[in-house]
Automatic annotation (TrEMBL), chain A:
This protein's UniProt keywords: ATP-binding, DNA replication, DNA-binding, Nucleotide-binding, Nucleus
Name recorded for this polypeptide: Origin recognition complex subunit 4
Subcellular location: Nucleus
Occurrences of domain AAA+ ATPase (ranges): 58-220
One GO term (biological process): DNA replication initiation
Record family assignment: Belongs to the ORC4 family.
Assembly and oligomerization: Component of ORC, a complex composed of at least 6 subunits: ORC1, ORC2, ORC3, ORC4, ORC5 and ORC6. ORC is regulated in a cell-cycle dependent manner. It is sequentially assembled at the exit from anaphase of mitosis and disassembled as cells enter S phase. Interacts with DBF4. Interacts with POLQ.
Matching Pfam families: AAA_16, ORC4_C
UniProtKB/TrEMBL annotation, chain B:
Record family assignment: Belongs to the ORC5 family.
Coiled coil stretches, renumbered: none
InterPro entries registered for this protein in UniProt: AAA_16, ORC5, ORC5_C, ORC5_lid, P-loop_NTPase
Keywords tagged on the record: ATP-binding, DNA replication, Nucleotide-binding, Nucleus
Entry keyword annotation includes NADP: no
GO molecular function: ATP binding; DNA replication origin binding
Organism in which the protein naturally occurs: Triplophysa tibetana
Name this protein carries in UniProt: Origin recognition complex subunit 5
GO biological process terms held by the UniProt record: DNA replication initiation
Protein purpose: Component of the origin recognition complex (ORC) that binds origins of replication. DNA-binding is ATP-dependent. The specific DNA sequences that define origins of replication have not been identified yet. ORC is required to assemble the pre-replication complex necessary to initiate DNA replication.
Principal place of residence: nucleus
Keyword Nucleotide-binding appears in the UniProt entry: yes
Any one GO CC term of the record: nuclear origin of replication recognition complex
């Protein structure tokens, strides 16, 4: 190390470690962005709606709809961040956050609502006749003491569509009902990735919904996408080692201008535009940085992209034994001959035996149980699946099965298979000859 | 192997203990990052059986003393158990005890959040789910929730899933948080030799053991690449390999001689221990007193079922009824018909298909007709025939179909293999093949 470097507080290794820490946290999606990219109108719309409840005490309901990773949760988070900056809101507004993955039925959901409103003690051992009564009681209880006006409550329902599967849609019905009556100022915000979510709602539930929807469908332009890459990878200005920070950020800028990187990003962009898959790519690139190469290089991104686009099925096919591979080929032939009709083990074994007897000189004959064991391994790997698992008493060898691989996948696997015997290869191709 | 944030000596001992997995260990460590950094919310590690997934992940966690829970989803039969294990490992018995009796995911996440806000993670906490394909059979939302646990509890936690099934088979219809996919490639032959050779016997040279492993792989590699299974087979058959050496019939350098001695033995092992037809104990015993029992056992395990004389014929008759078309019965079983002429009733496309499609159901009277015909006049029919049929059903050699339906007479199917029937036929001097339409 040179004496110049010693004078600064951080060593190179410490800088790399700190940069990793910052970027990892960002790319693991634990931080809200400063500003959502390309969602300005949606942002304003949602903020406006929630303000009306939080500030003016109007009830409302809204659905945020968009594919996975489109930024629904993030958008709401950013809006709430701004909303809670208003002093009167922070003191007054209550939030209830539910998630369809966690509150899997309405009883659990109601318990969670009670807890989040800090009303467990108020409710105590009271028994309620109905869900509606219980909810009404909770909202009433919020009108504490002297205040005649209730405090506004924001109900946030992530994975909204899952609540529609609850019995009678009781929770949805009651929440939306309250949002339409003047009982108390509530806003119901649903987040979902299902575009057809309204069709899941019962008529009485649907009629109580405001039909306000905010769609996060407008795709980013590629320029915005590349800009996002640059900003996501950049280190903040307050990084404790300005020189390292400058060098890093300059290398990121250079990277974004690189032709092969652009090509790679365009491929990624064309396969999915959402930020989440982009973050996964960037994460895989960032973790390759180490003290021995302390800036992000083009090769890091290329390697990350290679990892992401790996074909899992091909990877698994690569590790099959020759016997198992032969069975896959036999099944492929059966599929070709019988037009994709299901087959049983006996037929596969028959095809395989024909091959051994007529064409093969490298593969030996195996006892049937040995072949069966190989076949069952394929079943375990879920490459082969029983057509109807409920048939019960059928002998194993006659159970109808289907191959869960495409023709092309099998042929490709064959090309990549290490030291594939040529007679096996020829057998696989033979149907076309 | 070098990785910032972890003690170098521990990394070195890890590398020593995990041959052929250096790349995987390095990648895993870089995915995990330094202990205090965030790791990706969920990582899905897949690869064939015994490619060291559990072994590598477990060793890394244990040696580097990271906060982790390792849960095998086959042992962990309910989500409640899983929640308990996780809370216990990270927050101690009090936290685990505060789970309600039938905890929901909601309870789990709430408690986790509550505890972690008191003691936020200073190092990434890892939840490892081995044989994760089983989580799909539990609560439908368990897997999607675990995949985004980091978001749900907003703490530094990473869920690592291990499975031999590819990720595509896990993804729910409406999608979920996509984990990072990480493949553990299969070991090639050279890798297997390197790993297995480490188990060499103290009283023989490593070279000898390595050449033994090469011979073993020569027999088994095209059938099985499962390291665990191969290691077991290697240990089991090594004494036999050494026999010529013990007896002074061969020297360590006589590899060819040793090969000639062990090769047929290994072939036999493939048909027996490998298929679990005999237990490892039995196999060892057989090795000891091989001179007496010259016929190789195994495969024949089924044939050891002793059946009464007439039951054997009943079973044979059932097999014939299951695999012959009913319209051919006259030709086979009518005494007056004399010699069987096959040409008259052969339909080309039907040929061979019966044994491919499996047994067809038949009514009782057809079974009895065939039975009396094949048994010849050697037996006077009694009521005991029916009870013998029932006991064949209870032994699951016959399957009864449609017994719930009182209106229909019961039908049966034969549920044993051809090999089994041939073995039985031999014991009663009956040539079953002559009576099978498929083999005319
Ligand atoms: N327009 C955007 N600008 C900046 N960041 C974005 C944008 N869209 C998405 N992101 C980022 O992408 C990640 C995923 O977003 P988010 O978690 O909000 O998705 P989601 O729509 O809630 O997905 P899911 O349906 O799976 O819950 C977040 O880290 C978020 O910060
Ligand atoms: N590279 C290796 N070196 C030494 N032993 C290994 C190696 N890989 C796997 N094993 C051993 O093989 C067995 C199976 O490995 P395991 O991790 O359970 O496989 P998986 O979880 O992939 O099915 C373990 O007992 C382990 O000790
Ligand atoms: Mg979300
Ligand atoms: Mg394992």
């Amino acid at each position: 190390m040179t004496s110049k470097r010693k004078s600064t507080a951080l060593t190179e290794a410490q800088c790399v470690s700190l940069a990793q820490k910052i970027l990892r946290e960002r790319l693991c999606q634990q931080r809200l962005p400063e500003q959502p990219v390309g969602l300005e109108s949606q942002y304003r719309h949602l903020l406006e709606l929630l303000k009306r409840t939080a500030v003016h005490g109007e009830s409302n309901s809204v659905l945020i709809v968009g594919p996975r990773g489109a930024g629904k949760t993030m958008l709401l988070g950013c809006v709430l961040r701004e909303l809670m900056n208003l002093k009167e809101v922070l003191k007054n507004v209550l939030q209830v956050e539910l998630n369809g993955l966690l509150q899997t039925d309405d009883k659990i959901a109601l318990k969670e609502i009670t807890r989040q409103l800090h009303l467990e003690n108020v409710v105590g051992d009271k028994v309620f006749g109905s869900f509606a009564e219980n909810l009404a009681f909770l909202l009433e209880a919020l009108k504490s003491g002297d205040k005649s006006r209730s405090r506004p409550v924001l109900f946030i329902l992530d994975e909204f569509d899952l609540f529609a599967h609850h019995k009678n849609q009781t929770l949805l019905y009651n929440l939306l009902d309250v949002s339409q009556s003047a009982q108390a100022p509530v806003a119901v915000v649903g987040l979902t990735c299902r575009l057809d979510v309204l069709e899941l709602l019962e008529k009485r539930v649907k009629s109580r919904f405001s039909h306000r929807q905010i769609h996060l469908l407008n795709p980013l332009s590629f320029t915005q996408y590349v800009e996002a890459v640059g900003s996501q990878l950049s280190l903040p200005q307050d990084f404790p080692h300005p020189k390292f920070c400058d060098e890093w950020n300059r290398s990121v800028t250079k990277l974004c201008e690189d032709k092969s990187v652009e090509e790679l990003l365009r491929r990624q962009f064309n396969s999915s535009k959402d930020f989440r898959s982009l973050y996964m790519l960037l994460f895989l690139a960032v973790i390759r940085v180490s003290p021995s190469h302390s800036t992000l290089r083009e090769s890091d991104l290329l390697e990350a992209s290679r990892l992401i686009s790996a074909d899992s099925k091909a990877n698994i096919l690569h590790g099959l034994s020759v016997l198992e591979l032969c069975l896959i080929i036999a099944m492929k032939h059966l599929n070709d001959t019988y037009d994709g009709e299901p087959f049983n083990f006996q037929m596969v074994h028959n095809e395989f035996t024909k091959f051994i007897q007529r064409k093969s000189h490298t593969i030996h004959k195996f006892e049937k149980p040995v072949v069966m064991k190989a076949f069952e391994h394929l079943v375990e790997l879920e490459m082969v699946r029983a057509v109807d698992s409920a048939t019960g008493k059928v002998q194993r060898e006659y159970q109808l099965m289907r191959l869960m691989l495409e023709h092309g996948q099998v042929m490709e696997a064959l090309q990549k298979y290490p030291q594939c015997p040529t007679d096996v290869k020829q057998w696989a191709l033979s149907a076309f000859a | 192997m070098q990785c910032a944030g972890y003690p170098e000596d521990k990394l070195r001992s890890l590398a020593d203990r995990l041959p052929c997995r250096e790349t995987q260990v390095t990648t895993l460590l870089s995915l995990m990052g330094e202990p205090d950094q965030y790791s990706y919310p969920s990582i899905f590690i897949y690869g064939h059986r015994a490619t060291g997934k559990s072994h590598v992940v477990f060793s890394v966690m244990k040696d580097l003393e990271l906060p982790y829970t390792f849960v095998d989803c086959v042992e962990c039969v309910s989500p409640a158990l899983l929640f308990h294990r996780v809370l216990l490992a990270f927050f101690g018995p009090d936290a685990a005890a505060s789970l309600p009796r039938c905890p929901s995911l909601s309870d789990f996440v709430r408690l986790y959040k509550q505890m972690s806000s008191k003691t936020p993670a200073t190092q990434t906490r890892f939840i490892i789910l081995d044989r994760a394909e089983r989580t799909r059979d539990m609560d439908f939302s368990l897997l999607p929730a675990l995949l985004r646990l980091q978001e749900l509890v907003s703490d530094n936690v990473t869920v690592i899933l291990l499975s031999q099934v590819v990720w595509e088979k896990f993804r729910p219809n409406t999608g979920c948080f996509e984990p990072l996919l990480f493949h553990f490639p299969d070991y090639n032959k050279a890798d297997l030799v390197q790993i297995l050779s480490r188990d060499h016997h103290p009283s023989y040279t490593p070279e000898l053991y390595a050449s033994y492993i090469n011979i073993l792989l020569g027999v088994f590699f095209s059938v099985c690449r499962d390291l665990r299974e191969l290691r077991h087979l290697a240990a089991l058959n090594f004494p036999k390999f050494c026999e010529p050496l013990e007896k002074g019939e061969a020297k360590e350098s006589d590899i060819h001689k040793l090969w000639r001695n062990i090769e047929p033995h290994l072939q036999r092992a493939m048909q027996t221990v490998y298929l679990r037809e005999v237990s490892s104990m039995q196999w060892k015993e057989q090795q000891m007193d091989e001179k007496e029992t010259t016929t190789p056992r195994g495969l024949s395990a089924h044939a050891h079922i002793e059946l009464p004389y007439y039951s054997k014929f009943l079973l044979i008759a059932a097999y014939l009824a299951s695999f012959n078309p009913a319209r051919t019965d006259r030709r086979f079983f009518l005494k007056s018909h004399g010699k069987i002429k096959k040409t008259n009733f052969l339909k080309k496309h039907e040929k061979t298909s019966n044994h491919l499609l499996g047994p067809k159901p038949f009514p009782l009277d057809r079974l009895l007709a065939i039975f009396y015909s094949v048994v010849d006049s050697r037996v006077a029919p009694t009521a005991s025939i029916f009870s013998q049929i029932m006991s064949l059903v209870s032994l699951q050699l016959l399957t009864q179909i449609g017994h719930d339906d009182q209106l229909d007479a019961p039908k049966y199917k034969c549920a044993v293999s051809m090999d089994f029937i041939l073995a039985i036929s031999r014991t009663v001097n009956f040539d079953a093949v002559k009576y099978l339409y498929d083999f005319l």
